[in-house]
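ZP: hey, is the zinc ion complex queued? I don't see it on the tracker
AM: it wasn't, my bad. submitting now with these inputs:
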Amino acid sequence: LEKSLSVSEYLNHHGIKPSLHRIKIYEYLKTRDIHPTVDEIYQDMVHDIPTLSKTTVYNTLRLFVDKKIASMITIEEHEARYDADTHIHGHFKCKVCDKIYDFDLDTNFANTDSHTLNHFQIDEKHLYYKGVCKHCLHGSMKT
Ligand SMILES: [Zn+2]
Ligand SMILES: [Zn+2]
């Protein structure tokens, strides 16, 4: 159902006033699976949208996370990355190429909670793996 909505309708639907900057930032995030940082989004977009500031990007992403249409990935504490795919999935970070890969989780992770957390309210679930991706392992990314 939500797929048929335009981005501005989608933002409205989630209580976000669809300004041009917000629409563009959401489109950027939604059409890329690179899990960009604020800096990367800003650097990529500022040529097309000179009125954009880094603060706007940061505030917009915070709003998206607040309204649960994006999530913040903090595999490294000094580096927040953003993801518009809000389905529960895991993230694998390659320590060689720094890429973050999505991976599917089986429904057990999504549905089963530890008894320790009975009667707790769970707002977010994250599963982070770190290692070396197959491309780096096999040397095909090296120049
Ligand atoms: Zn890699
Ligand atoms: Zn992801």
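AM: back. The chain has a mean pLDDT of 89.
ZP: great, adding it to the tracker
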